[in-house]
Amino acid sequence: MTDADLKKQLATLAVPSADPVAQARALHRATIALRTPQTTSPHGAARPRSSWFGFRAAATAVATLCIGLGLGWWLAPRPAAQIAINDAGSRQLLAQLNHLFPGQLNAVIEREGALQLDLGPQANTVAAPADQALVVELHRDGRRLRILAYSGRPVRFELEGVFVRIEPLITSNGGVLLASDDFVWSSAQPAARALDGWEIAARSLALPL
Amino acid sequence: MTSSVKEADEAHLVTQAAAGCAQAFTELFNRYYPMIHAFAFRLSLCPAEAADIAQDTFIQAARALTEFRREASFKNWLYTIAANKSRDRQRSRVRQERVARDLLALAPDATASDFSGSSEAALAVRDALSALDGDLREAVTLVYYEGLNHAEAARILGCAETTVSWRIFRAKQKLKKQLRPLAAGSRP
Lengths: 209, 188
Fold this sequence. Notes:
heterodimer; A: alpha+beta; five-stranded antiparallel β-sheet; 5 helices; 33% helix; globular; B: mainly alpha; 9 helices
């Protein structure tokens, strides 16, 4: 067998095309890594600790107060229509709760006026920047489920008595991809009803550039 | 686009991405992901592993962009990271289990796999490549599939050029031995 024959044979090994969900997930995670400062610097530990901790304590107190007020506002009984806050309110609520549960908050789920938090068992090592926030809305027969989440963080919620796990991803062009074990939904093709007849809508909560 | 314009454009993108520009990084990602994914697949011969290696490569690249010294091209720098990530994963038992599962699914009677529809020749090549030691497969992938010369491959793999030449020689011997029966008209 000549070298040319060998090259010809090696060329028959085809590469499967890249999975678009895996690709979107890789971009998302790499972009977060790009924004996350490196912590390996030996000078990192040399910061003035006392003033830093003082600032953190004050910030935590203020955040807790804001969250308390925000939750109180959200949880107060009122007609369901009034709970549908705008994107700015959603962003704010998500940011406040994320501050209260740093790295643990997967999603805030609003169902018929009631709020539920989806928390991870332990803090995520990857921070969730505010520009990765998104909202997913499910509608069916007048019923409505609203999920505030972060791109790349799996969300688990109950739907028609069954637990559903989805991973929402913001794509490079600002769309939203929802990936599950048995379906993929894209805001680019929103007509598909993948979740047992529930109509899906999703969009990024990032501020327009 | 001419080669020099493309290089200048890429250098500009790398500079912007290193400064934290997500748009520039996304452009680089979209430009190189398919190539790195293909490279990772040829190293691992496992679609799931390829996706993980490609992801790890770009996460590492994002973290280390400020340390990119431009001594190599950006593409070869990504190859270096991917080769290291692949080695890291080869050491892990998780990978061994997953590959074993995938290879099981790739048995001739498997109906649903990423290799379904592959020709007998392609399956034979996959088997022959998977029978090579990791360092031989790395050399074959870089030289035969990615089209690099021995010197470039040596820089990526962190070894001497003569080592790459020797690995290619050994790999060719083994591949030819394994694939010869197929060339003669039957599976080895």
